[in-house]
Amino acid sequence: MSKISKFFKGGGSAASKGRGGPSPQEALARLRETEEMLSKKQEYLETRIERELAVARQHGTKNKRAALQALKRKKRYEKQLNQIDGTLSTIEFQREALENSHTNTEVLKNMGYAAQAMKKVHENMDLNKIDDLMQDITEQQDVAQEISDAISSRATFGDEFDEDELMAELEELEQEELNKGMRDVRLPSVPSTSLPSRPGKMPACHFTFLKIKPCSSSRKRAEDEDEMKKLAAWAS
């Protein structure tokens, strides 16, 4: 019995038979073994084809019978090689389909495990309790925000005093300071010399309101200018 017959006719293990069929992993392993065996058969046939071509070239027209027999064998090997190519294509397609099916099965199995885990997690959860919890969290956040606003707001200590009274008191203080400044101002002395009755030469030191003419003494002039500055400040 050929190896291919063993694979497809009772080649499975006892454990696989007991389960009613091989597992995807076992089937994939068998398919890969079959592909490996057919690949080796391909290499063998390719070697035989090259050998028969060499024999046909060697005999040529000198020994037509031997050359033709070599070409016939070559044709048979090529036919077997084409058949193996088709078989390998079929096995490759089946293996890929089985791999995809196995992958999908594992994905669905894992998704089922995840769904069961989520169900188990949610068993002890009550939607009403969750709503109450979220409401409590919202209320506590509002309280925390109010506390933060109260702490960060500007302090208003002393706002119980009347602002109008404070302004009146401030104006009174400013008036007192102004009056004090006016008392400290020393007005210039009135000149003792009488004014002339007719035009003529003015005295050496003659004052007018807010204006002073220069005197002969420099020190006197500086004192007069200082007095006039104070008088001008008071008048303004």
From TrEMBL:
Pfam families: Snf7. It is a peripheral membrane protein. Residues 220-230 have a biased composition (Basic and acidic residues). Residues 9-21 have a biased composition (Gly residues). Keywords: Coiled coil, Cytoplasm, Endosome, Membrane, Protein transport, Transport. Its main location: cytoplasm. GO terms for cellular component: cytoplasmic side of plasma membrane; cytosol; ESCRT III complex; late endosome membrane; multivesicular body. It is found in: Cytoplasm, Cytosol; Late endosome membrane. GO terms for biological process: late endosome to vacuole transport via multivesicular body sorting pathway; protein transport; vesicle budding from membrane. Residues 1-25, 217-236 are annotated as: Disordered. Coiled coil: none annotated. Belongs to the SNF7 family. This is CHM4C protein. It comes from Illadopsis cleaveri (blackcap illadopsis).
